[in-house]
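Budget justification, computational time. The allocation requested in the original proposal was used primarily to generate structure tokens for proteins on the priority list. As evidence of use, we reproduce two of the resulting records. The first is shown immediately below.
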Amino acid sequence: ARLLTGAGALAGALLGGTAGFAASPELALFAVGSALGCVYPLMIALAGQAAPGARGTAAGLAAGAGALGGFAVPWLTGAAGDAAGIALGFGSLALWCGAIAAAGSWAHRVG
């Protein structure tokens, strides 16, 4: 529940910051990266705990999904920023945070 709350709060902060950058975009993206950096190993650990009979499989699937996101998200964010400006690129990060929160919420209810 704390992870979901944190992801939702980060998504909201990103959306709020999209309208006008109080700090430089570089510092804002550094803060976002620092906040999201803990999600990957935490989700792998939580996946293993959620499936005690298949910890390796669960951790592997979570790691694979995270690796795919680690490849695709920066590329898609950069493409959005190049096409429509930095505000859209930065704002798209809020969508990814929201997706993490929604997936975690769904997994929490299913498990």
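The second record produced under the same allocation is shown here.
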Amino acid sequence: MRITDLIKKFIGIPRVERNPTVEITAEEDDYSQLDPEKLKEVYRKNLFVKAIVNISANFVFSSIPKVECDDEEAKEILNNLYQDNIDTFIQVARESSLTGNGFIKVLYTDKGLDIRGVYPSKVSILPSPYDLRDYKEVHIFHQTPLGFDNKIVSLREIHTKDRFTYYINDRIDKELENPIKEIPVLHIAYNRMSNELYGSGDITESVYRNILMYESILNSTLKNFELHARPIPVFFSDNELLLEELKKIDWIKHKGFVLDKEARVELLEPSNLLNGATDLLKMCFYNIVILSETPEFLLGVHMPSSWASTKEQLHPIIRKTKRYQNIWKQQLKKLNRLVLKYLELYEGYKFSTYETKVEFPEVETDKLEKYVKSINELVASGILTIEEGRKAITPFIPNLFEELELEEKEDTNNFEKEKK
């Protein structure tokens, strides 16, 4: 049994085979992935998971990407398209961060271009036997109620380079020729190894295991607090009538009582209330920070070292953001090519090239420096607290890359310097 199989039993996120017709062994290519539906359930319930995923997606798309193309008309069309579909990109980036995989389907319908995200659990890929990155077929599954009786109907689409086939309850409903001879489904796969078909996101098995440990330690500590705040009285007496009366008393309402001279009472309460709990919480917290490559101050300042240099904490998420943006660039170039082909086929455009470049812009450093310095001066003068200053610059943090020197100053020290 592989170590990942042992881990998944512990953390409760099973790995699922997206192509059940292929038997996977340790020597063969890996077609498995963490269960997207289980991860979605975790995302809805766990604040740590939700924060990591949302931060990651917002960093990747902190600004709308820009398209460069030798054909000026194509360039204008694509940049407008990105403006109109930025919410879809952010949604798919969120799903990619959560599950490691994001999918965008690009089709042309009677209403025009249709660009939509498809949740990973709905997609199954059949790759070429010679190259995992060359997809032979992409299947998309749905189950939906149709008609007045709300009967559940299963829908399936099979996209190949030659045709689109649509099934209803496993019976062919229609077949269409694929006019662009490319599979119109983009696959954004994060952290994918060379022998893996699917990627892995920010919520890996190790990250989730530490999140569960953090919650378990925190819940145990809270229970200790409750027990400490309401200790259990233990009475010792030979007077049976007295003991019977004591059992009837509501100790929440009655704070005081009188015993006979033969009786004694002790309180049953926990010792070592916080012994080791803080250290364990810190350990789990920093494991989550390191493994997810997320700055601790963005997850919520609750550890003393969170006042450390913001710039130093940014390096991991900056590297991760650039890594993810490079993955997006390649898939967005494919999206551009699909869009331009569809527009030529159905709207009469003629473009000189399908080749494009995609860049994620950064704000101008000099303007950003002035803004940060202004916030810093407000903090130093006491108009803003340090926490308020952090909140003010947080929306701009994705653009504070290595070239920007950000110095943090303690407001008390600055106040002392001003007095002198």
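A brief technical remark on that second record: The radius of gyration is 29 Å.
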